[in-house]
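Re: [ENG-882] Designed sequences occasionally contain unexpected residues at chain ends

Forwarding the minimal case from QA. Structure tokens:
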């Protein structure tokens, strides 16, 4: 059963219609939040059809914003 799921996920990954502008993965049927990019050397991306992906993105932006704020505040 798991090998069948892996095969389905691989087919979704290879389908160009699931990639917006070739860099944003958008597939409502895929329940994964993190997905490998088409070129595996470039890492992973978010499945932007998954609602939790926007929460992950917001947390990452807030975290790096806090780091930048902290560094610039100490420099002043």
């Amino acid at each position: 059963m798991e090998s069948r799921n892996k095969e389905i996920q691989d087919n979704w990954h290879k389908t160009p219609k699931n990639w917006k502008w070739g860099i944003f993965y958008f597939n409502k049927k895929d329940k994964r939040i993190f997905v490998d990019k088409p070129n595996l050397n470039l890492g992973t991306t978010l499945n932007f059809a998954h609602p939790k992906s926007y929460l992950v993105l917001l947390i990452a932006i807030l975290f790096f914003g806090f780091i930048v704020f902290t560094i610039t505040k100490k420099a002043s």
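QA comment: On inspection the terminal residues look reasonable. Helices lie at 2-14, 51-75. Proposing we downgrade this to a documentation issue.
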